[in-house]
Design brief:
Order of helices and strands: HHEEEHEHHHHEHEEEHEEEEHEEHEHEH
Helix content: 25-40%
CATH topology of the largest domain: Aminopeptidase
Number of domains: 2
Bound molecules: zinc ion
């Protein structure tokens, strides 16, 4: 098959899409269900319809464009929402690449034996209630209470946001009923790390996607006067957090190299310069590409927290906010992508994705695969996010060939 993607058209699409939600800091701010997101949704719908694909949207706002025929669907896509002040390629590159593949298949009348779909999933970035809202809805994996009663990361109840849209909690919770039988799901994405660029490669084949465990935690001590309480009588919740964060990070870095641990947000109470912190609330997130390691990490990290708490006379409490499972990409998918790299004479390497992706959620329904293209300087979630068009062209041609293989 000699059909190739039209990179000029893809570039034009990405530049058009990248202007929607452009903010005053030069980034793209397009969280799902924001006015900019609705502009982008209309834009995508127009592109899908003009391409001659059959447009569909489910109750969670996931958008699809289909080449119909009987059989199990081969799907490709990603997301078009962004983090606040993000870049124009995270997610968007994967949706535009999948759209371009289906356009080329239609234009060149490439014979396929299975239905094909481009997909764009709502709120992959988790600006609303937890990440992967759209793909989790598609899978029927949502927490009903969170959808009906949850608060968004902007502080507003989710139902207030929904009231301003065409979507409803019932529609979101029922979205999975419209899911077609899937043969496979493929996602092209920017790497969001420096490895491919360092290796001088245009594409990477993802072998594993890390799972994560995210908790909201607190050390609880005793607030008291900063000038009159001797060190030996203090129960300083902040020092508990600091001690724990250092010990836990060192533990992961030395005993489980390759896994990650991050304290990303910390709030001290009461939060005055003259008062010893009586409580430290913080997020704790750890990731690994191995299910077994995640289980071991959970035990070991909380043993460290309990130890720090008892040494310092503090209480420790935590609750799970979210978990995702690590995914091993099926070897049949990796093998097909490798073979297509060979036929395109595109050198590749296999790698692990430390970031989570919609593909990981869809792994519950079908075989999934991911193609990474380099992120110059490893930068993403930033206005400085870039892409090299030649890399994207190679990645999209690889996606096209893999899709045709899977749909034949
Ligand atoms: Zn993304």
């Amino acid at each position: 098959m000699d059909v190739k993607v039209n990179i000029e058209r893809m570039r034009n699409d990405l530049e058009e899409l990248g202007r929607l939600g452009r903010d005053e800091h030069g980034g793209v701010s397009r969280p799902s269900f924001s006015p900019a997101d609705f502009e982008a949704r209309n834009w995508l719908r127009g592109k899908i319809e003009r391409a001659g694909l059959c447009y569909r949207q489910d109750g969670a706002g996931n958008q699809f464009g289909r080449i119909d025929c009987p059989g199990r669907t081969v799907m490709a896509g990603s997301h078009i929402d962004t983090v606040p002040n993000g870049g124009m390629f995270d997610g968007a590159a994967g949706v535009v690449a999948a759209l371009e593949c289906l356009r080329r298949i239609l234009e060149e009348k490439v014979p396929t034996a299975r239905p094909l779909e481009v997909a764009s999933f709502t709120d992959e970035e988790g600006n609303l209630v937890g990440d992967f809202l759209g793909s989790r809805a598609f899978m029927g994996m949502l927490d009903e209470n969170e959808i009906r009663k949850g608060r968004t990361s902007f502080g507003l109840p989710f139902e207030d946001i929904l009231r301003r849209t065409e979507f409803t909690a019932d529609g979101i919770l029922g979205a999975h009923k419209d899911r077609p039988e899937l043969e496979a799901f493929l996602e092209l994405h920017i790497e969001q790390g420096p490895v491919l660029e360092d290796e001088g490669l245009s594409v990477g084949i993802v072998e594993r996607i890390a799972g994560k465990h995210y908790r909201q935690c607190s050390f609880v001590g005793q607030a008291s006067h900063a000038g009159t309480t001797p060190f030996e009588l203090r129960h300083d919740a902040f020092l508990g957090l600091a001690d724990f964060a250092l010990k836990a990070t060192q533990h992961v870095a030395t005993k489980h190299y390759g896994s990650m641990l991050t304290v990303g947000r910390a709030v001290l109470h009461p939060g005055s310069f003259s008062i010893i912190p009586g409580r430290a609330d913080f997020t704790l997130e750890f990731r690994s590409s191995s299910e077994e390691t995640l289980r071991v990490l959970e035990k070991e990290i909380f043993a460290i927290a309990e130890d720090v708490a008892s040494t310092r006379g503090l209480g420790f409490a935590s609750r799970v906010v979210d978990r995702t499972t690590p995914v091993v990409v099926p070897s049949r998918i990796v093998k097909i992508i490798e073979e297509e790299c060979e036929s395109l004479h595109t050198p590749w390497m296999k790698l692990t994705s430390g970031a989570g992706h919609d593909a990981q959620i869809l792994a519950g329904a079908c075989d999934v695969g991911m193609i990474f293209v380099p992120s110059p300087d490893g930068i993403s979630h930033s206005p400085a996010e870039r892409i090299v068009w030649e890399d994207l062209e190679k990645g999209a041609n690889l996606l096209l060939r893999t899709l045709v293989r899977l749909a034949t």
